[in-house]
């Protein structure tokens, strides 16, 4: 069995990686080159093409692979390879970031042989674009109030798309936000902030879409994302100053209205188990969650 060499994704690998995601459409936020490239620095994830499918390997303490991406026949061959590889290495066969659709495919090929444990903290929140744009209905009444208050407090506010001309202002705002939110003392927060800054630094290279809100000509909120599938846009980054009342609901709505209307859904990623973030994401009433989990062999009773 030939040993496969896994490598860290680099910017020039986009041409290799992106087509595999296109062959296996998913609404999961991990299934974009930009996400993989930027987060691989923190989580030490490497990739290889195995049997015609794209496979990511977590280089942590335990061997684990992301569910392969590609045409179904290639995915099946890659799974067979990984199972044999784990058997030879005498390590458990473990897959991570497995969606319900992934597991259904796998279970059809290997009925009853594997089990999945979904991780609630990693589930992506997916919303109907129209509802985020209009905030219509009784359930979102509070959001409309926040936005109206923002418009009353800051009548000179303005929205504009992020471009090469204003990306640096967003970068400086993000640095200020980092200082205000104590990111230096929190490893996870700091990692997320590094990713945020790199989204802005590589805005053009990663082909991102973005938007910002100004108050008194100063950037007080911004948003960055990209399409993840034909019908879904994923928001990777959203930052607003806590001291600017209503800035979060405002950038949320304005960004959707200006950049996302051609998509049916908006994926606003997971809550990582943070109580405040979960409450905020649920308050927008998601259409559904993209659940993801860990797959292992079913124990024989």
Automatic annotation (TrEMBL):
InterPro entries named in the record: Acyl_CoA_acyltransferase, LPG_synthase_C, UCP018688
Domain Phosphatidylglycerol lysyltransferase C-terminal: 25-288
Highest taxon in the source lineage: Bacteria
Name under which the protein is recorded: DUF2156 domain-containing protein
Record organism: Schaedlerella arabinosiphila
